[in-house]
Structure formats: structure tokens, C-alpha cells
Amino acid sequence: MNSAFQLEFTRTSNDGQFSFSVLPIVRQNDALNVLTEAFYPCESVCKAIKLSENAKAVDEINELVKEVIKDGVSVMAVDTKTNDIVGVSINKLLTLPTAGETSLFEKFMEGCKEKETKIMMQFLMDSTLPTSGVDEPSLATLPSLASFSTSAAYPQIFVIEKIPTSTYKIILLEIRFSVLTTRSTASQPISAVSADVFEYYNTDKLVEITLLAVLPEFSQVGLGYKLVKADLELLAELHENFDGPDVLTALATSTMSSMIGAYLDFELLSEYYYDQMEYGGIKFSDVIDSRDECARLACKRLEKKNQVVPASRY
């Protein structure tokens, strides 16, 4: 569905400092520079698996990002004074898969060579990483969830452990595009019932925020919020003019991204705690900022055009 939408979409912040528009392919290298500086070294899971320390893994992920940008639904934030890209929301257009259909993520993963790339790709797929014939482990014990509430924004979580054959096994604790419900207490394992998000929203297409990044020097001006708001407004335009998707799904790996989702009325579907995950024998919580206790999966279905959030909140 490359270049499926031809739409002039531009928004400007109230103070005129930033403009928001569809990220064009000709500026993909500028977008990759933002990810290299602000996402790979800083995002919670990337930090836990030390992605930025493996240049080859970064290069592999960047190749995937280039393919995702072709969908034409990613958004860039541009400094109007310098014309520099200072933030990006890399978004993937997803359609309900047919039996036997191979997704972009699955095709891409087949060519991945770096273990960190494979781990990150697992965040973008419904299936687990092949384990060279080793039996799959059982579902790990998870903390109890409170009742569902409106809250969050954007991940799916694994326990990653090194096994004797040096094969890296991923224990999937939450399948991407799933709704986790629980009827357990804090002292009991969660009883999980997964439901496809396509089915949950009765839709055959949606857009996923795959990567969200803002340069550090612009991290205190609400730019992440403005990018996600622009995502929703772009989605509304596509839905109105091209019968495009009306559901935005996101995986929030930090407290800040969760706050963005809460402010924009995303529907919280599940949350998991980093002290329940580990990589190479080290808990995620020992590496990730202590303020980021858990990751959250959430979605938002559009309401009416131009009624995503009040303009005064931009």
C-alpha cells in the first residue's frame, strides 16, 4: 500500500515554532538521524538490550523504517526557523492479514542477522522468534492488573534469556495487537485471554505508532504530544477522504508516552512491569529509568472529524 494516500496535510503549533506534516521519502535520512540520536539510545527497551551499541543492528532497523515510511502515514515535526526535523512519529499502515499472508515485518525478520534486531522485530510481530528446535517456555507469571481504564499509549513485552546453545529465546508475555484481560489477584499468575485488535474494534485496517522520537533539546515543549495529536488528525483526514483506517494503536514504553496517551483519551488495554522482564540475566528494571515502571498497550478509535481533541490543547 505504498503511496496509497496523496494528501496535503500540514498543521502548525499555536506559537508557530513547529509544523507537522507527512514525512516524505526524500527526508527519510533526516528522520533516521532523529532516531539515531533520540530513540535507539533512549527508548526503554532499546536501552535494556543495548541496541545503540550495535551499529549493524541500528542499520538493520533503519532499513525497516525506510520501508515503513513508504506507507505515507508517518509524521514529522519541523522547526519552522531552521527547517530541521526535530521529531518523528514512524507509523505503519496495517491491514487484516489473510491466511498464509506474509507481513512486511515477517519478511524483514527473515533477513535480520543481529540478535538485537531480532529482539526489536519481535515487538513488531505476532509470532515468537524461532528457537532452533528448543521447546517453547510456558507463560511467565505477571503482576495483577487493575480494572481497565482510559490511560495510555505505546509495547509488547518479553522475557529474553540466553540458553546454552547461544540461541536467544524470547518468551512472549503479550502478543502485539492483543487485549489482555485478567481475573487474578496480585499473588496469582494472570489468566490471559487474547483477542485480535482488528476483531476488538471490528476493523480490517489500522495504523500503528511504531517509533516515536523527539530530539533531546525539544523534549520539554510537549512535542511528543503534538506529534501524536497530528497522527490522529492525519488519520481523521485519511478516513474522511480515502476511507482510511480510524484506529490508532500504540505501545508506550515510558511514563511520558503513557501520559500522552492518557491526555489524548487512548483506551488502555494492558500493562506490564519491567521487573518481570530480563535480558542476558539482567532485569529490564535494573537498566531502565526507575520512573518507567511498566509498558502499556493502548488504542484510540477516532470520533468525528476535527473532534479528536480540543484545538486549545495543541
Explain what this protein looks like in three dimensions:
The chain contains 8 helices and 12 strands. It has 314 residues and is an alpha+beta fold. The strands form 3 sheets. It has an 8-stranded mixed β-sheet with strand order 1-2-3-4-7-8-12-9, sandwiched between helices. Strands 5-6 form a two-stranded antiparallel sheet. Strand 1 (10-12) and strand 2 form a beta hairpin. The longest helix has 20 residues, at 223-242. The chain is globular, with a radius of gyration of 19 Å. Residues 126-195 and 306-314 have low confidence and may be disordered.
Sum up the structure in keywords.
12 strands; 22% strand; 314 residues; 25% helix; alpha+beta; disordered C terminus
Secondary structure layout:
Elements: E1 10-12, E2 18-22, H1 28-38, H2 44-49, H3 55-69, E3 75-79, E4 85-95, H4 104-110, H5 115-121, E5 158-162, E6 168-172, H6 197-200, E7 205-214, H7 223-242, E8 247-252, H8 255-263, E9 267-273, E10 278-279, E11 282-283, E12 294-301
Parallel strand pairs: 7-8
Antiparallel strand pairs: 1-2, 2-3, 3-4, 4-7, 5-6, 8-12, 9-12, 10-11
